[in-house]
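Q: Can I borrow your eye for a moment on a structure tokenisation matter? Would you mind producing a protein record, from residues through to fold? Write it directly below this note and I will take it from there.
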Amino acid sequence: MSSWTQADIDAYHARRLAQVGHAKPTASKAATKPRQKAKPKFSAQPDAIVTTFVGVDPALRKGGFWAAIICRVENTITFKTCKDLGEYVHLLHDVNPIAVLVENSNLQKPMFDKRAGIGGAIAVGKNMGISQAATDIARHFSSIEPGISPKQKGAKVTNVATFDAILRANNLRPINYKGGETNAQDKRDAAMLALRAEQIYNILLRISALRGE
């Protein structure tokens, strides 16, 4: 197999994105963004290149929020924390995903607990702001609509054994996840969003193929 150059990879990305009616930012827009790390050359079949899907749980904790990155070249799901939106932008630049899905609480009517007081209201507002910002940023990288409401996302997977079974069923090996850590639930939430992003992307590809596009 011949080694793919960066130009080959970029051209392939553009062709796949065109199949679902989206395009990557133009060179003039990309020039205004933080510099992207150089990508390694791949020796792979074309279908093995567009293989990265990202799920983001933007619940802002003390250490930031979590993202899950599915790589279908190695069949891994890697969990990374973003301390702020700047790190999040750099992560998406480095990963260069084909699809991103973010849980956006702004897409659902907010439910405030009056017992939480002013501090609770501020925390809810901050998370809603992060959710919207993370979604807006993802829109510049994703070939699918990146926002999904908590209701659309569905119930949380809280059982460790169930989550492990889901990963095995999807042929994924977790990196930076043990299951018993304090932030494990945020990681599981991000992982389920990444899996949903992959499913949506594949469905759109099948629809596009059926239409002959």
Helices lie at 6-19, 27-30, 85-95, 117-138, 150-153, 160-169, 184-210. The radius of gyration is 18 Å. Residues 184-210 form the longest helix (27 residues).
